[in-house]
Amino acid sequence: MPDTVWVVAGYFGLAVLSAVVPWFNAEVVMLSAVPLAASPLQLGLLVGAVTAGQMTGKATMYWIARRSHPARLRPFLDRWGARLESRPATALGVTFVSSTVGFPPFYLVSMAAGALRVTFGGFLAVGTAGRLLHFGLVACMPHLYWRE
Questions:
Q1: Maximum Cα interatomic distance, the chain, rounded to a whole number of Å
Q2: CA dihedral 91, 92, 95, 96 (to 10 degrees)
Q3: pLDDT tens per residue across span 123-132
Q4: Contacts of 147 (CB under 8 A, 6+ apart)
Q5: How far apart are CA 48 and CA 5, in angstroms?
Q6: Residues 6-59: tens digit of each pLDDT
Q7: What is the reported pLDDT for 147?
């Protein structure tokens, strides 16, 4: 892969964009990177770059939602925040499922996690694990499909 650092940086940037612009598809970004990798190590670097870029963008969405939300949502957020306080693993479980399979949409879950004040460290750790698994599987799909 020529100029590996620039390619990895470019895919990181595309992944950040895909994290904050919902109609810019991260899976297409990841699939477009697969043919550029000349080795499993390079493919791993690209999966890591897309994962890191996605989580950078999702963390931005988290903090935007945490710092600003309409006053009319406050009663709803207070009610759900109280429910999640007694069961914090539920919020992290939903975050992991969403970041891995995309349902509920990770874009919305990221904002809800911020608005509901889910711990940022937990959100970041669980979201990163799910996204890494997700993009690792997406990157491997072409190899599994065309395998003889």
A1: 57
A2: -150
A3: 999 999 999 9
A4: none
A5: 13
A6: 999 999 999 999 999 989 999 999 999 999 998 999 999 999 999 999 999 999
A7: 56
Q: What integer pLDDT is reported at residue 79 of this predicted model?
A: 72
Contact assessment for residue 114 and residue 66, using Cβ atoms and an 8 Å cutoff: yes
Nearest by Cα to 46 from 61, 26, 60: 26
Terminal Cα-to-Cα distance of the chain (whole angstroms): 25
The whole-model pTM stands at 0.89
- Single-letter amino acid code for the residue at 38: A
- Residue 116's Cβ-count burial label (10 Å; 0-12, 13-18, 19+) is buried
What is the distance between the alpha carbons of residues 87 and 127, in angstroms, rounded to a whole number? 18
Q: Residue 28: what residue type?
A: V
Give me the domain span that covers residue 110.
4-145
Q: Which amino acid is at 45?
A: L
Q: How many domains does the chain have?
A: 1
Please answer whether residues 62 and 120 qualify as being in contact, where contact means their C-beta atoms are separated by less than 8 angstroms: yes
